[in-house]
């Protein structure tokens, strides 16, 4: 069972590791690559997390904690555009601050079956957007499109180093992808 992350160094390690796991998958991500990404030796990385498996589990768990937080925040809102906008705002803010963790969470859409608890991740997204994908295919596709756009655009915003300018544009793009128009 992964331990809760300490602030600072562990959060940076988890985010960098999550990004690598999301991009390459668990099997193709080496401990050396993980250590290099955070500027540590393998021994230094193992001081923070006892194994690659523990790091992987901690990254998935942190992604789930963040998504559960969003689901809890939007739960009191009625289903509809306002709830969806709030979910997008919260997810975008997390993605701008922790892009690796969000990429790992969204990997469940692009690499089905890699994580045994993937169904829980999908249920959280369905809960946020109040949808039954098998009954609302067009809407499910719009949601995946909005979340995919958010993932790509927040990564670009992080590369450009201008999150403040990008944030409203990302939200407008995602909201539009859901079929809602800005007022």
Automatic annotation (TrEMBL):
<keyword id="KW-0804">Transcription</keyword>
<dbReference type="InterPro" id="IPR050109">
    <property type="entry name" value="HTH-type_TetR-like_transc_reg"/>
</dbReference>
<dbReference type="GO" id="GO:0000976">
    <property type="term" value="F:transcription cis-regulatory region binding"/>
</dbReference>
<dbReference type="Pfam" id="PF00440">
    <property type="entry name" value="TetR_N"/>
</dbReference>
<dbReference type="GO" id="GO:0003700">
    <property type="term" value="F:DNA-binding transcription factor activity"/>
</dbReference>
<keyword id="KW-0238">DNA-binding</keyword>
<feature type="DNA-binding region" description="H-T-H motif">
    <location>
        <begin position="30"/>
        <end position="49"/>
    </location>
</feature>
<dbReference type="InterPro" id="IPR009057">
    <property type="entry name" value="Homeodomain-like_sf"/>
</dbReference>
<feature type="domain" description="HTH tetR-type">
    <location>
        <begin position="7"/>
        <end position="67"/>
    </location>
</feature>
<keyword id="KW-0805">Transcription regulation</keyword>
<dbReference type="InterPro" id="IPR001647">
    <property type="entry name" value="HTH_TetR"/>
</dbReference>
<protein>
    <submittedName>
        <fullName>TetR family transcriptional regulator</fullName>
    </submittedName>
</protein>
């Amino acid at each position: 069972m992964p331990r809760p992350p300490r602030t600072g160094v562990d959060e940076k390690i988890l985010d960098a590791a999550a990004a690598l796991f999301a991009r390459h998958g668990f099997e193709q991500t080496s401990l050396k690559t993980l250590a290099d990404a955070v500027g540590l030796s393998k021994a230094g990385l193992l001081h923070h997390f006892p194994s690659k498996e523990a790091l992987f589990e901690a990254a998935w768990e942190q992604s789930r904690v963040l998504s559960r937080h969003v689901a809890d925040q939007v739960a009191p809102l009625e289903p509809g555009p306002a709830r969806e906008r709030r979910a997008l705002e919260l997810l975008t803010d997390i993605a701008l601050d922790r892009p690796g963790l969000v990429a790992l969470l969204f990997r469940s859409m692009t690499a089905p079956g890699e994580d045994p608890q993937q169904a829980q991740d999908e249920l959280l997204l369905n809960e946020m957007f109040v949808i039954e994908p098998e009954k609302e295919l067009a809407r499910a596709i719009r949601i995946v499109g909005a979340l995919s756009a958010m993932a790509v655009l927040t990564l670009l915003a992080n590369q450009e180093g201008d999150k403040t300018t990008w944030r409203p544009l990302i939200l407008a793009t995602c909201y539009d992808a859901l079929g809602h128009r800005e007022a």
